[in-house]
Amino acid sequence: MTRTPCCERMGLKKGPWTAEEDQILVSHIQQYGHGNWRALPKQAGLLRCGKSCRLRWINYLRPDIKRGKFSKEEEHTILKLHGILGNRWSAIAASLPGRTDNEIKNFWHTHLKKRIQKSGVHNGNASSRILQEAQANTSLDASSAASSTVTANVMIANYGLPVRNINPPIAGFYGAVSSDTFGEIEDNHGSCQLSEEMEFWYNIFIKSGQTS
DNA sequence: AATTTAGGCAACCGCCTGATG
DNA sequence: GCATCAGGCGGTTGCCTAAAT
Asked: Domain Myb-like: where (predicted)?
């Protein structure tokens, strides 16, 4: 038995939101909150699926959303965090108040990725110069990298982080990163606003990396 | 001025995970 | 333990606009 996606239900509208729909959604959430996204459209009188409402609210209508160009600091933070976490946009967004995962993802694909490619990096998941440098400078062999993977998995298991979020590049990064790179990240640690989870990764992969 | 191309971004899709019965 | 549901996430698509020809 397969689940029918809510958006496939007949009569539900798709595509760009109108100002009127935005208004309805905002006022409904302001009044009642969004306890149940699936039930919300019906309650609010919107011909949209719950997912669509949630996305619209989170990515566009939330009052605390910061719009406009990314600052240099934000750019820098994204590059750093992507180098550590890979495409975990929501985790990266957690460290950039007011920015959404979708916005960061779009920014990455349209600006940063291109810039990195221009500078000669073409490793699929290698986001930053840092990672590129780490890979170029590494003196660790494959077995070291593999043991780093094990270390990462053990840490994740012990600390209860979601397993699906383990990103192979993280272990690779940890295994391959040079001491210079550790230093560079540490130097910038203070200038980046890190979420709780990022602090966690920072402690595991950066601080512990220096002592191993 | 008209057409084509490229860039940017909003929105959708499908999968995964955790919660619940 | 299993099935189902709802929420969340990342990948991808497609539309709109600006720039180039």
From this structure: 9-61, 62-112
Nearest nt to the A55 alpha carbon by C1': B11
**pTM, whole model, 2 decimals?**
0.67
User: What CA–CA distance (Å, rounded) separates A44 from A27?
Assistant: 9
Residue pair A134/A176 in contact by the 8 Å Cβ criterion: yes
In angstroms, the CA of A194 and the C1' of B18 are apart by: 25
Domains of chain A from N-terminus onward: 13-61 (1.10.10.60), 72-211 (no CATH)
CA to C1' distance (Å), from A162 to B18? 11
Q: Is the CB of A90 under 7 A from strand B?
A: no
The whole-angstrom separation of Cα A193 and Cα A51 is 30
Q: What is the pLDDT of residues A55-76, one digit of tens each?
A: 999 999 988 888 888 888 898 8
A103 touches strand C (CB under 7 A): no
Per-residue tokens: A174: 């940890």
Q: What is the pLDDT of residues A122-166, one digit of tens each?
A: 443 444 444 444 344 333 333 333 334 443 444 444 444 443 334
